[in-house]
Amino acid sequence: MPAKQRTSPLFILVAMVTAVFALYVAKAILLPIALSILLTFLLTPLANRLERWRIPRVVAVVSLVGISFAVMGALGWVVTNQLVQVTSELQEDQHKTDLINKLQRLRPQSPTVDKIWNTLADIRNAVIQGAASTNGSGKSDKNSNDKSGGANSGDRSPPTKETDKAETNHPTTASQDNLATTVKASNKHGQGKDSVEVTVVDQSTSTFEQVQDWLARLVEPLTTSGMVVVLVLFLLLDRENQRIRLIQLFGRSHMHATAEAFHDAAGRVGLYLRTLFLINAAYGFAAAAGLLVIGVPGAITWGVLGFSLRFIPYIGTWISASLPIIVSVALSPGWTQPMLVLGWYLFMELIFNNVVEPLVYGSTTGVSTVGVMLSAIFWTWLWGPIGLILSMPMTVCLLVAARYVPQLRFLTVLLAEQSPASPAERTYQRLLAFDYHEPIKLAHKQVKESSLAAYYDNVLVPALTLAENDRHLDVLNEEQSTFIIEATADIVDELGEATNRSLAKTEARETQVAAAAGAEPVNGPITSPTRILCIPLRDEADEIAARMLAQLLMLEGYQASTGAAKSLTSELVDHVADTDSDVVVISALPPLQPRDTRLLWRRLRHQYPHLPIVVGFWTAAEQKESLAEPVEDAESRVVTNFAEAITIVRAMAGRIEVAAKTA
User: What is the rounded (10 degree) CA torsion for 368, 371, 377, 378?
Assistant: First the structure.
């Protein structure tokens, strides 16, 4: 069977560039479609509810769409009237004077600031005078000619008489209004026949052209709105059939995956939009009510603006807040009203961000903070202001598609909220960069959330395995290898000390509770007489893994110790007798193979026939099936993680203690 061919990265890049180009070129067509689909997500639950009330689908959908767009139109009319009213108030002289006085009072009284202020004023005046001299260049030239004529008094000419004369014998018609008219100025005394031709172009437009330009600006939004209304209407009327058509179109050969992708996208985007719509509506209503009580003109307008702009993550709220604050500063006689407006927006932001959204949102959209900003920039560049509002829903749809399309997996790396690297990979990356602080911070966080054994199994041992793989491939230099080994050993020691301190505090609290209850306190954990020796197979990484296991066993109450990686095999075998160990654990990290442990295991079994031996090959639990247990050896076990090793050692130690008591 031939190997499955992978898609070329160049082909993916070309396809993405082509798709972006198509989205940009087909903006006029795709933008109404995107708006219609998102509005359909919003209105579908309401349409389903009306149909469950035994209302016919046509009546329910037409009524719902009609009421929705009627409300939007009414809000638009109110907002337009209030904006006109606020604009007319801002143009009054009294408000302009109050605003100038406020700004002057805000200016700091400092000689340096005064110098900067005066410099800017001089630059402004110079620019205005330069523009005025440029516009009146004809007059300046005339004055200069008069002065030169005054210097030569004997040759003084009378003022030039300008005569407008059309150089054509045909009457002027309406079609010739834009033609140039030549004006000739001649010297009355005959001193030269020079003439100056001045071309005057008529820039006025006809009434028909003005109406045509006005209609062109009005037709485009009306056409887009009409397309959105019609598409929403038909998508709601035939929503099940349209979903089946899309599944048949995009995934007929993979029906299950495509149906799941569409269901996931519709569920996540629909839930996100409905939740965000309700929260933003509540925010806009609260903003309008608060501004109305405070007395800011156009309160409904600012409420609608807050509702609309809050669809833009992070910055939309403060953009909507800045306008009523500016209007309040310009129209109010003092600073009380602007401060109240600012305080009201701060109060609403704290309540909605810290109380309402955490309670309402059951889960996040899955987009990271940087991903939100990148998507906002991209969709704004692509589709303008409406693209900024659509950025989050479109990005969520792309992330859902990336979960099912392998060629789009890079989008999850760029935009997804969850880190694309596992904690083990993050730890190894920071150790490669000679960074100790971030791995230890991550270690304390992981231990606090789970346990020390889980952190060792899931993070530190896999990170150490990645380092060993690269070291055996000669990818790491000597400095990196040394730092990784030393930093990992320090992490193990620091975590062990932190765990011991935590256990000591717990025991102290238990002792106080027991003393308060009148019971006899228990000093420390019950120590098992079983002695366990953790032997590294070969490398320093194996020794660090052995230290991790010994640390965990000591926390369980066992007497655990470790051997040295630099010791010879014979020295390790003799060390078992020197320590009088009851159980031996051989510690080995990949890329060493399981067969590499056979020599040490055979030497131990030959020297100590009845010694319980655990071979710890620290890979992962899912690889346990590929590791065979020692044949005909009831005293040996193979484990792949620390949790399993502790369980096996606990069982062996129990049998040893029972045998010791019955002997």
Answer: -140
